[in-house]
From TrEMBL:
Keyword Hydrolase: yes
Biased composition (Polar residues): 14-24
GO molecular function: deSUMOylase activity
Biased composition (Low complexity): 47-60
Any one of the GO BP annotations: protein desumoylation
Sequence segments annotated as region (Disordered): 1-33, 46-69
Domain Ubiquitin-like protease family profile: 289-460
Name under which the protein is recorded: Ubiquitin-like protease family profile domain-containing protein
Any coiled-coil regions, as ranges: none
Length: 490
């Protein structure tokens, strides 16, 4: 193995000895590494000691191989690749005297290569005048830009060596500084020139548009004047228009919503207790109706009202009117059995209720009342019919927004018979209006219909609008129970 190494080193030395100019330049290169100092071996047989033995086993083995002969000199036919050493702006281009005889021919060829590279870059231009920036290409591509046959070497020089080197000519500067950045600037100039030519045609079209717009300026000014004139005229008309009168807000009356005291609430809840179910709590003497704890239970939440509670409350409303006639309308309140007698299964029957409204029993004529209230029970639902003598109307109120013309027709016929029977007057009820009242407070459950009916009667007898809703039903139940226990409607 050692013999092979010796032959390789000798071949390198002989190669460099045949090319003195190349070896001289390689010594100046920082990438050049000087060969190690040669180790000389004596090929002669080492001296032997007194016992005729070799002094070293390795030496004896080396002596077996013959001396390496100097290899034959061969010419290198392949072109040598240029060694590029980038030294920045301080780098200097040196030309090998063996390859380029004339310095001008070399720079001319390099200038032509750079020019051809710039022209080839024009292929990357597209219709939108975009170009590919070649400034970010890797260094490998930059190296490929240099011709494979180039024999220039760029080396770093000290300050003293720079002084000795001749200043490059203008052509040298062009070759040294021409690069990819110059190519991009060249492409920029090409794209700008194309844009200028395109803008020339667009500028002409823009000029034509401006000329056509100027012809319409007079017409636009006239239209603008008309718009301003009409706006001022419209503002004057709005100012001269009379302002609508603001309707005063209806004040919610205080009397129908007087809260209960703690003592009154305690008394009501005591009456609702189970130990008073069989006990007669109050008795209304004029109507001879007893109110027990069990009867009063219908005023608890989620319960249906019964006939006893409704009839007693209507009697209390009549007594309230008699007590304070100036604060309430003159009304008559039929009980829950009147309509069942008037319109039974056999049909309309005036004789069944003829004695219910005698002068001696009532103390007044029915046709002299402002309003006549008729509670109607329809199986599981309470509704209200009203004979409004003051406005000459027949009204029907249903908390579920229902209608029934049969009820109003029966009451119209009854009013004519009643007037003729008691006063001897003929009333033409055909001219009266029959109205199914809409927009009234509606129940939101299936058990407050009786309470809604009583409050329709209460608010109409006061001469008030129906200004309550479902959320007041809990309070109205407690208040109605309190008034029945005291036998006095407030």
């Amino acid at each position: 193995m050692s013999a092979v190494a010796i032959n390789r080193k000798r071949s390198e030395e002989s190669l460099y000895s045949n090319q003195p100019s190349t070896a001289q330049f390689r010594r100046h290169s920082p990438y050049f590494q000087a060969p190690k100092k040669k180790r000389r071996f004596s090929l002669a047989i080492m001296s032997q000691d007194s016992n005729n033995k070799p002094s070293s086993s390795s030496t004896s083995r080396m002596a077996r191989y013959p001396d390496a002969k100097t290899p034959l000199r061969r010419e290198i036919h392949a072109p040598s690749r240029a060694s590029l050493i980038y030294g920045g702006r301080g780098s200097v281009i040196k030309i090998k005297p063996n390859d380029c005889c004339e310095k001008g021919k070399f720079f001319t060829r390099e200038y032509d290569n750079a020019k051809r590279t710039a022209l080839d870059a024009c292929r990357f231009l597209n219709k939108d005048k975009e170009f590919i920036d070649l400034g970010d290409e890797p260094e490998e591509e930059e190296e490929e830009a240099v011709s494979q046959d180039s024999i220039i070497e760029v080396i770093d020089c000290d300050e003293e060596e720079k002084k000795n080197i001749q200043t490059p000519s203008s052509s040298d500067v062009i070759v040294n500084n021409f690069g990819v950045g110059d190519t991009s600037r060249m492409l920029d100039s090409l794209s700008l020139s194309r844009e200028e030519t395109a803008d020339a045609s667009s500028l002409e079209a823009y000029r034509k548009l401006m000329q056509s717009a100027e012809r319409r300026n007079s017409k636009l000014e006239a239209l603008g004047f008309e718009i301003l004139f009409n706006e001022k005229r419209l503002s004057q008309l709005r100012e001269s228009r009379p302002k609508p009168l603001e309707k005063p807000l209806k004040k919610v009356p205080h009397e129908p919503f007087i809260p209960l005291t703690e003592e009154e609430e305690t008394e009501v809840y005591r009456a609702f207790s189970g130990r008073n179910r069989k006990k007669v709590l109050v008795t209304h003497e004029s109507s001879n109706i007893d109110i027990t704890g069990e009867v009063l239970q219908c005023l608890t939440p989620s319960a249906w009202l019964n006939d006893e509670v409704i009839n007693v409350y209507l009697e209390l409303l009549k007594e309230r009117e008699t007590r304070e006639p100036k604060n309430y309308l003159k009304c008559h309140f039929f009980n829950t059995f009147f309509y069942k007698k008037l319109l039974s299964d056999s049909g309309y029957n005036f004789k069944a209720v003829r004695r219910w409204t005698t002068q001696r029993k009532l103390g007044y004529a029915l046709i002299d009342c402002d309003m006549i209230f008729v509670p109607i029970h329809r199986g599981v639902h309470w509704t209200l019919a009203v004979i409004n003598n003051r406005d000459r109307k027949f009204l029907y109120l249903d908390s579920l927004n229902g209608v029934d013309s049969k009820i109003l027709n029966a009451l119209a016929k009854y009013l004519g018979d009643e007037a003729k029977e008691k006063s001897g007057k003929d009333i033409d009820v055909s001219s009266w209006e029959m109205e199914f009242v809409e927009g009234i407070p509606q129940q939101q459950n299936g058990y407050d219909c009786g309470m809604f009916m009583l409050k329709y009667i209460d608010f109409f007898s006061r001469g008030l609008g129906l200004c309550f809703s479902q959320e007041h039903m809990q309070y109205f139940r407690l208040r109605t129970a309190k008034e029945i226990l005291k036998l006095r409607a407030d």
